Automatic annotation (TrEMBL):
The gene is LOC118497525. InterPro entries: CEA_cell_adhesion (IPR050831), Ig-like_dom (IPR007110), Ig-like_dom_sf (IPR036179), Ig-like_fold (IPR013783), Ig_I-set (IPR013098), Ig_sub (IPR003599), Ig_sub2 (IPR003598). This is Carcinoembryonic antigen-related cell adhesion molecule 21-like. Belongs to the immunoglobulin superfamily. CEA family. PANTHER family: CARCINOEMBRYONIC ANTIGEN-RELATED CELL ADHESION MOLECULE 1, CARCINOEMBRYONIC ANTIGEN-RELATED CELL ADHESION MOLECULE 19. It comes from Phyllostomus discolor (pale spear-nosed bat). Keywords: Glycoprotein, Immunoglobulin domain, Signal. GO terms for biological process: regulation of immune system process; signal transduction. It comes from the Eukaryota.
Amino acid sequence: MEDAGTYTVVAHFPNSEREIGFGQLDVYEHLRVPVLIASSYGVIENEEDVVLTCYTNGLSVQWLFNGMNLQFTNRMKLSWNSRRLTIDPVKREDAGVYKCKISNPMMWVESRPLELHVLY
């Protein structure tokens, strides 16, 4: 990480000419597989809430539901860093498989699937 920064390259040519160039080197931390945990894995419809937390070293968090980008509703709230998703109250259509996906400009990694059951 400490190697990131602006670098100068100087090319010396046989005819005594030289060219100078500049470049930016960005270094990204290796992303570890995020861990997704729920406050409860089986909740009662219209009576309980659930909090899904994505534990990660990544900066950018995306939420997936049944293999697609999660379509947020007015019952869903994200924490300031997008690592915590609260659904309040839970409805039967919220039952399914959740994942969190983290990324940086070089790669992305998904958590293992978490299956939420809604009792009604």
